[in-house]
Please model this.
Amino acid sequence: MSMLQPFGSELWTMDGDPVRMFAIPFSTRMTIVRLESGNLWVHSPIHPTPGRIDALRSLGTVRHIVAPNRIHSLGVSPFKEGYPNAEVWVSPKFPEAHQDIIIDAVFDSDSVPEWADEIEHHVFRGSFYLDEVVFFHKLSRTLIVTDIIQKHVAANDSFFWRQVKRLVGVLGKEGGVSLDLKASFTNRELARQSKEKVLSWDFDRLVISHGYCVDKDARSIVEKSLSWI
Model:
């Protein structure tokens, strides 16, 4: 199976190595968009092995590296080293959490990157912890999220971790927003505004970093996942 998985018009995903956070196992996934310029926009970069770099080279040259929240830092510096002319865009709390990583720009809801006509973005507000930036790729009608919605594949985990992930609400295709993350949204008004913004986009597909993606009728799934707000 190819490392690059086509997901929509000019959009691909690439699975990375599993990682652990607070001992919890997570699968990883990078999303790649080829812009009208022919350059590549890379979301939540994974570790750039030679094989992965060769696969990306078949699509174009990486010019934009996106760290969508304060947690997803794994491949940012290695990608910047491999593509020194690429711009590194990061979430609002990323610079404080990773002072050793060189960045070029920080997202806010008013940022206008050069790719804004092709990929819209919004900083999902309301959580005291997660500063996730969500994206809408217009051409493929794809919503791209990172941690706010998770649907972990049960077969990837041991019995113990399957039970934990089921308990917090992120296991399998019925997964969604984890209980701990819901609890971090102390400003529900800001969260409601962000939910309305996301649902105003005309998306039909959903790419997530951890677990199952959705290749059609994703709007109802996102609405259900965010219905607690």
